[in-house]
Specification:
Layout: H1 9-17, H2 31-42, H3 45-59, H4 63-87, H5 94-101, H6 104-139, E1 153-156, E2 160-161, E3 168-170, E4 173-176, H7 183-198, H8 200-225, H9 249-260, H10 269-272, H11 280-309, H12 320-326, H13 335-367, H14 386-402, H15 405-433, H16 448-462, H17 466-490, H18 492-499
Antiparallel strand pairs: 1-4, 2-3
């Protein structure tokens, strides 16, 4: 009994099979739904925003290689997720997998850490969506006041000093922008939260429609863009390093990989819906690996087109795809408005899937006693975890309304990378301790694949700023306080073992 208490695979599989209980979630998702959920979460901020920034600042045209490095890290983690998801078709994702292999204490750390990925991830993307939406409204002649479309707070890692007067332009830390609240971001989160409360099937249908729309737009950009590529823009393919780590050269490719890693966040959200899959043993690996493979190919092709249409320094803007298309001249002008519509729709579906993932992790933690029982409530009619969905929506809405995108994005990346490292480690532990368990999907080449996943994701973590690590440590200290003051004494598994 204690910190390292594990939840047996047999118990978890029994919970998954307990469909007769009135409080279970509705199994309504097939392989296609799960794959489109993954695509819906992945294709968004990465392809519409981060590709240009990372190419301009770190990797140049070699941003293609950055996507391959990031994609490999996600592939190795994805193969580990697929084995767990097929064995343990329970809502909760990496939290549940950690509970089964590494013990309750590690499971709590993962569950607390995943809040950074899903809750703050939804807030981050909602802020990005607000920018595209405001720009689109301006295009059609509707002016939205800046005071209600921007965050009232901004954050700077260091103070900026005027080189002439030596006056402080802005201090380090938080400062006010003069804005009131980012209203569009909050409204989007409210709408997506409402849809998720109504039902998983309805949410999946909405997501399927959006996924078809944004893949069509991405394919239009790739197909027509390749016709106007200027190959001179690809030379040099790997710009020479400036003498500073991470600014071009091979170190720039690795730094770029850590930045565009945000573009892949979301494929693991498929695993949070395991308890709502019709045939999880077969469909979960298809959903996880299928969505990851499709999006990796699209990212590589898209980054080739963008750096071929525009010289990479010109892509350091909030809307790089639009800028790249403009470089093709009047021939592709018709694509401009379509791209904005695609970005608005695409980012909305990312918010939907992120907001779907977090309540299901809370739901699993509450059923294990690590959170109060109210977190595990399921709506009697809609069969959705409505209390945690509403709570997640309220918190995500407040965060999106007040904080800037850069600060949130780094927190999301480090939280997700940590979860991936722990899941990969869990596969090694489970293969060693329980080699004979039935595994509908087996991660190939164990322990090589999970070790590579740990090394690549761990290395990308080290390239993130020190301040991001400090925030992660503070976040974890808060989580540990909750665990030791509440969760440990209320754990159902620990209490059951204590009374045995």
């Amino acid at each position: 009994m204690g910190l390292w208490t594990k939840k047996s695979i047999a118990v978890l599989q029994g919970e998954a099979a307990g469909e007769s209980e009135g409080h279970t979630l509705r199994r309504a998702l097939g392989a296609l739904n799960l794959t489109t959920l993954g695509i819906g979460a992945i294709i968004g901020a990465g392809i519409f925003v981060l590709t240009g920034t990372a190419a301009a600042q770190y990797a140049g045209p070699a941003i293609v290689l950055s996507f391959i490095v990031s994609g490999l890290g996600c592939l190795f983690a994805g193969l580990c997720y697929a084995e767990f998801a097929s064995m343990i078709p329970i809502a909760g994702s990496a939290y549940t997998y950690g509970y089964a292999t590494l013990g309750e204490f590690i499971a709590w750390i993962i569950g607390w850490d995943l809040i950074l990925e899903y809750l703050f991830g939804a807030s981050t993307v909602a802020v990005g969506w607000s920018g595209y939406f405001s720009a689109f409204m301006e295009q059609i002649g509707v002016h939205m006041p800046a005071a209600f479309t921007n965050a009232p707070l901004q954050y700077h890692e260091t103070a900026a000093i005027d080189s002439v007067t030596q006056a402080v332009i802005h201090p380090a830390g938080f400062s006010q922008t003069g804005a009131v609240v980012n209203l569009p971001a909050m409204v989007l989160i409210a709408l997506m939260t409402t849809l998720l409360v109504i039902g998983i099937k309805e949410s999946a249908r909405f997501n399927n429609f959006i996924v078809i729309l944004k893949i069509a737009i991405v394919l239009l950009v790739i197909g027509f863009g390749f016709m106007y590529v200027n190959q001179a823009n690809w030379h040099p393919f790997i710009p020479p390093n400036t003498g500073e780590y991470g600014h071009y050269g091979w170190s720039g490719i690795v730094r770029g990989a850590a930045v565009v890693f945000f573009a892949y966040i979301g494929f693991d959200a498929v695993s949070t819906a395991a308890q709502e899959a019709k045939n999880p043993q077969r469909d979960m690996p298809i959903g996880i690996l299928g969505s990851l493979a499709i999006c990796t190919v699209l990212y590589i092709l898209m980054s080739l087109v963008m750096t071929g249409l525009a010289h990479y320094p010109e892509l350091d803007v909030p809307h790089p795809v639009f800028v790249a298309i403009e470089k093709a001249g009047p021939a592709l002008a018709w694509l401009g408005s379509i791209i904005n519509i695609g970005a608005i729709a695409g980012l909305a579906s990312v918010v939907l899937v992120m907001l779907m993932g977090q309540p299901r992790i809370f739901y699993s933690m509450a059923r294990d006693g690590l959170l109060p029982p109210v977190f595990g409530k399921v709506h009697p009619r809609f069969k959705t975890p409505y209390v945690t969905t509403i709570l997640t929506g309220i918190v995500a809405g407040v965060v999106a309304g007040l904080f800037p995108i850069g600060l949130l994005g780094e927190l999301v990346s480090i939280g997700t990378l940590l979860a991936f490292v722990i899941v990969c480690a869990g596969i090694i532990v489970l293969r060693y301790k329980s080699p004979n368990l039935a595994r509908p999907f087996r991660t190939p080449f164990v322990p090589v694949v999970p070790i590579l996943g740990i090394l690549i994701c761990g290395y990308m973590m080290t390239s993130l700023p020190r301040a991001t690590w400090e925030r992660l440590i503070v976040w974890m200290i808060i989580g540990l306080a909750i665990y030791f003051f509440y969760s440990r004494s209320h754990s159902k598994l620990a209490r059951a073992e204590g009374s045995a």
